[in-house]
UniProtKB/TrEMBL annotation:
Family: Belongs to the acetyltransferase family. RimJ subfamily.
InterPro entries from the UniProt entry: Acyl_CoA_acyltransferase, GNAT_dom, N-acetyltransferase
Name the record gives this protein: GNAT family N-acetyltransferase
Annotated keywords: Acyltransferase, Transferase
Organism encoding this protein: Prauserella endophytica
Pfam families in the cross-refs: Acetyltransf_3 (PF13302)
Length: 226
């Protein structure tokens, strides 16, 4: 398939370089982690995990209309998937499913992709509570970050995390992101305006790659050769 081309004020470039893509695997304590585009057939497992993990996830996610059950029931997935697919086709988003040993385990998204002279995106992710502490989120962030700076041609990635979300703070730190500052009353989460710590990384900080850094630090392993 040939990528569409965008002729904007800063020159001509592919509409969505680096998409679609399959990334990994990378072996961590929880298993073999890989990223792939989200699929319509992910809906049943997506809904099962998110309904089960309400207490684990809801306190960190933006306030949204409707009940948790309505927003995360099986019927909520098709319109969400269609929206993500449309954004990806327009080059505004790279929506990945996280898999562990081949099974759906969560999502990681490079969103609000801006090209031209900025070339940036934000990073958001969630992982099943059953895999918490197993290195899955860190591996997913490293895989997505390498891809963003290589095939997708981005220059800067940003992430924001509530100060109370210690697990996610650790994920970003281990994945190579640096803290930049504190955004006061930044986002409406769980019904109130919450402070968030901002993290970022740029292509100049990549070195040999964030996956390579995890492997060198003993936090992940490459897959066994077949």
């Amino acid at each position: 398939m040939t990528s569409q081309v965008y002729a904007g004020p800063y020159g001509t470039e592919p509409r969505h370089p680096g998409w679609p893509a399959k990334l990994g695997p990378l072996v961590v304590r929880a298993g073999s982690v890989a990223l792939r585009p989200v699929h319509l057939r992910d809906g049943r497992e997506w809904s099962r995990i998110r309904l089960r993990d309400r207490e684990y996830l809801e306190k960190w996610e933006p306030t949204s209309p409707g009940s948790w059950t309505d927003r995360n029931g099986f019927g909520a997935w098709p319109p969400q998937w269609l929206s993500l697919r449309a954004l990806a086709r327009r080059g505004q988003c790279l929506p990945f499913a996280i898999t562990v040993d081949g099974a759906f385990a969560g999502q990681i998204t490079l969103g609000n992709v801006i090209r031209a002279s900025l070339r940036s995106a934000w990073v958001g992710y969630w992982v099943s509570s059953e895999l918490a502490g197993g290195g899955v989120a860190t591996a997913a962030v490293a895989l997505a970050t390498d891809h963003a700076f290589r095939a997708a041609g981005l220059h800067r990635l940003e992430a924001t995390v509530r100060p109370e979300n210690v697990a996610s703070l650790r994920v970003l730190g281990k994945a190579g992101y640096r803290q930049e500052g504190l955004f006061l009353r930044y986002l409406d989460v769980a019904g109130d305006w919450r402070d968030h710590i901002s993290f970022a990384v740029t292509a100049e900080e990549m070195g040999a790659g964030f996956v390579a850094r995890l492997i060198a630090d003993g936090k992940a392993q490459p897959p066994e050769p077949r």
